[in-house]
Design a protein that fits this description.
- The chain is of the alpha+beta class.
- The chain has a single domain, classed as Methane Monooxygenase Hydroxylase, Chain G, domain 1 (Up-down Bundle).
- It is built from seven helices and seven strands, in the order H-E-E-E-E-H-H-E-E-H-H-H-E-H.
- The strands form three sheets. It has a three-stranded antiparallel beta sheet with strand order 4-1-7. The protein has a two-stranded antiparallel sheet with strand order 2-3. The chain has a two-stranded antiparallel sheet with strand order 5-6.
- The longest helix is centred in the N-terminal third of the chain and has 26 residues.
- It is globular.
């Protein structure tokens, strides 16, 4: 019985996490292709508890353009953990692998803050500049965390509605996500 409760809580946490990403993405003008909270394997990422399929711009689109240009994307990437914290005060920002929300936010912020360079014909963010500007990059991510926290606090009922729907159906299409969000906002 304990295992079932743990599994149900994990599904609930995941639903809130992915709902946070989806609501933030749509609110910031990004497409959400769908949400799937079933565990699975994603090539290039590995085992996941689920995902919100977001059409976010490539980090290269923000290279050297500054914090303001990338802030909406950072808020979307970080909104998941704060949405999950609505029901799980132990939820924390994952930075453990290259596709984690925390790592992706750091990569986007570093690219926006640092000056891009061409190395071997490829546009990159120079590692030495990232090291020199690490404090500025971290402050940018912290600012984005604060904004994501504010976003989740002000959109809590919408996130709750999307998450509760996800718990019931597990997979939501693009049209259903938009409909859920707009119906919950009214």
């Amino acid at each position: 019985m304990n295992r079932t409760l743990d599994d149900a809580f994990a599904v609930r946490c995941n639903a809130y996490h992915e709902a946070g990403h989806a609501v933030a993405a749509i609110s910031h003008g990004f497409l959400v292709a769908g949400i799937d909270i079933r565990p699975g394997f994603v090539p290039g990422v590995g085992q996941t508890l689920g995902s919100a399929e977001l059409a976010l711009p490539s980090p290269k689109e923000f290279l050297g353009k500054g914090e303001d240009a990338v802030m909406p994307v950072l808020v979307v990437l970080l909104a998941g953990v704060f949405a999950e914290q609505r029901i799980n005060d132990r939820a924390g920002l994952d930075i453990g692998h290259a596709q984690s929300d925390g790592q992706r936010a750091f990569i986007y912020a570093a690219g926006a803050i640092c000056t891009p360079a061409v190395r071997n014909g490829v546009l990159v963010t120079p590692g030495e500049e990232v090291q020199r500007k690490i404090a500025v990059i971290q402050k940018s991510v912290e600012k984005a965390q604060a904004q994501a926290q504010q976003f989740v606090a002000s959109h809590g009922p919408v996130i709750d509605g999307v998450a509760e729907a996800l718990i019931k159906v597990k997979v939501v299409s693009h049209q259903d996500v938009e409909s859920l969000i707009h119906n919950t906002m009214m």
